[in-house]
Each structure stands twice: as structure tokens, then as C-alpha cells.
Write the C-alpha cells for this entry.
Amino acid sequence: MMHCFSGGTVVARLASRDKFEAIRELIREAPVFDGSEVRDKIAEAVISREKLLSTALGRGVAVAHGTTDAVGEIIIALGISRAGIDYGAADEQPVHLLFVITNPPGMQAEYLLALAAVTRLVRDEAFRESLRREAPSGEIESRICDAFSESLKSYLTASA
């Protein structure tokens, strides 16, 4: 099972307004990404992928992602920007919810499942608003962890 949205995965106040700086800031500030060498490799993988094709989904959400051998499991983090990140989204809206998903090589199926679960969650406007509300990181982690687990279960049940 994936360790997603456990302790140290939410950065409640991203300051960066540039998408690449926001990605770096989230990876640097989220304790779940351990060690500066690991963080550099993750940032390199995610930013390289982002340069190929923007991961902005619209409605104030982006899901940046990358594959790297710097991690041994899928890790998902969420950065919340109060001011908004200039992400170049198709709907021209700033990004307020920036997810970063990183996975090791050989876990593409699990990565796609995680991506589908996150994407399903953020379609819900009320849920997006609940994440943007001012709250301690731990409370946001708990809220998204529960919702992510439910979303993942529904995908696994549907495909069984």
C-alpha cells in the first residue's frame, strides 16, 4: 500500500509564485522528502517532466510528477499556495493546490493508480475548498489521507 499524505506531506503555505520554484519549495519543505541529495534528484525528475508538458489540471490544481530511483516507494505531497502560482494552466487560473507525486522505476501501475485517485479527489469543488481553508498541516493531511484512501479503495474495488 502507498504511504500517501502521512506526517510531513503537506506544506500549508507555499511562498513561490513561479511553478518551478514552487515545485522545488514543496520538495525542500515537505519532511517526507528525506535528505538534500534525494530532494535534488526528485526535483530534477519532476521539473524535467514538467518541462515536457504542463501538469496543470485547471481549477487551481496541478499534479507535478516524476520517476526517480531516489525513492523506494510512491510519495505524494501537497503544497498549498494562498497567493496562487503562475502555472500556465489552460484555464489561465493560478494554481493553489500543487501536488507532487514521485515514484521509483517499475511502479508505473501503482503511480497511475495514485494519480487517478488524486485526480478524482480534486474534481470535487467542495473538497478543493476544504484543502484551501486555513488549517494546521496535520489537519489537512488527515483530511486528504482519509479521502485519498477512500478514492483508492473505490478504484481497487472497481477493478477487482
Q: What stands out?
A: The chain has one domain: 3-159. The chain has a mean pLDDT of 90. The radius of gyration is 14 Å. The longest helix spans residues 137-159.
